[in-house]
From TrEMBL:
This is 6-phosphogluconolactonase. Pfam families: Glucosamine_iso. InterPro entries: 6-phosphogluconolactonase_DevB, 6PGL, Glc/Gal-6P_isomerase, NagB/RpiA_transferase-like. It comes from Cellulomonas uda. The lineage of its organism: Bacteria, Bacillati, Actinomycetota, Actinomycetes, Micrococcales. Pathway: Carbohydrate degradation; pentose phosphate pathway; D-ribulose 5-phosphate from D-glucose 6-phosphate (oxidative stage): step 2/3.
Length: 256
């Protein structure tokens, strides 16, 4: 089951990041009154990392029981551990290091980095899929993701699923990606199969360079040309955008 896209427009990228961080922290607090543990999927990208930094500086972060939160990534750049271009490195710098006393290290499930044992995106994708399956219930491939955050590129890519790329059709939970049009060329991504199991999928996008892709995705363009159109949650699909990114959609930059 998938859900209709809801759109919330914020005035600019900074307010978007602050509001998304607040929304995420409150969503985790709310969900913790119903179930535990929670599984949250982080994104890389400009607004995604800015959102994590905003969460780090929010007092609401202390309302979350981080010992009952598991952290995953929607995609990763296949680079050595600690590389500054890895989404994991940026997320640790922006938020996770600040949570080190509250969030158990074993709850942070990074996509394996390039090293002497893991030499291909496929090997990393397979190891990541095994880790995901360890926390899945029943016959699922992945844990029950509570909130799955996605950034979106100007070309409409989400996670590392790019327009026209064979990874768009990958089955199972994860896929290795070669020839990404955005550097670095080697990546690992959740598949649409995995993304669409999430309770809530939130796509965050800011800037006029994203306006065409936002308009296409909200108009349900084919996933082959606008991958973000395929990002749908089972309980809620939320588009969190700034006014510049919203400018091309019907209704323009006004709040939905
Ligand atoms: O490479 C990536 O890019 C997208 C979007 O990045 P942005 O800087 O245009 O916001 C991001 O969602 C993805 O996780 C990342 O690997």
């Amino acid at each position: 089951m998938t859900t209709p896209r809801e759109v919330v427009v914020h005035p600019d990228a900074e307010v978007l990041a602050q509001a998304t961080a607040a929304r995420l922290l409150v969503a985790l607090v709310d969900a913790q009154s119903h179930r535990a543990p929670l599984h949250v999927v982080l994104t890389g990208g400009t607004v995604g990392i800015r959102t994590l930094a905003a969460a780090a500086s929010s007092p609401v972060r202390d309302a979350v029981d981080w010992s009952q939160v598991h952290v995953w990534w929607g995609d990763e750049r296949f680079l050595p551990e600690g590389d500054g271009d890895r989404n994991e490195t940026q997320a640790r710098d922006a938020l996770l290091t600040a949570l080190a006393d509250a969030l158990p290290a074993e709850n942070v499930h990074a996509v394996p980095a390039l090293d002497t044992l893991v030499t291909t995106p496929e090997a990393a994708a397979e190891a990541y899929a095994t880790e995901l399956a360890r926390f899945a219930s029943d016959h699922a491939d992945v844990p029950a993701f509570d909130v799955l955050l996605l950034g979106m590129g100007p070309d409409g890519h989400v996670a590392s699923l790019f327009p026209g790329h064979p990874a768009l059709g990958a089955r199972g939970a994860t896929t290795g990606v070669h020839g990404s049009p955005k550097p670095p060329p080697l990546r690992v991504s959740l598949t649409f199969d995995a993304i669409r199991t999430a309770r809530q999928v939130w796509v965050v996008a800011a800037g006029s360079e994203k306006a065409d892709a936002v308009a296409s995705a909200l108009a349900s363009a084919p996933v082959e040309t606008t991958p973000a159109a395929g990002a749908l949650g089972t309980e809620r699909t939320l588009w969190l955008v700034d006014a510049a990114a919203a400018a091309g959609r019907p209704g323009g930059a006004t709040t939905a």
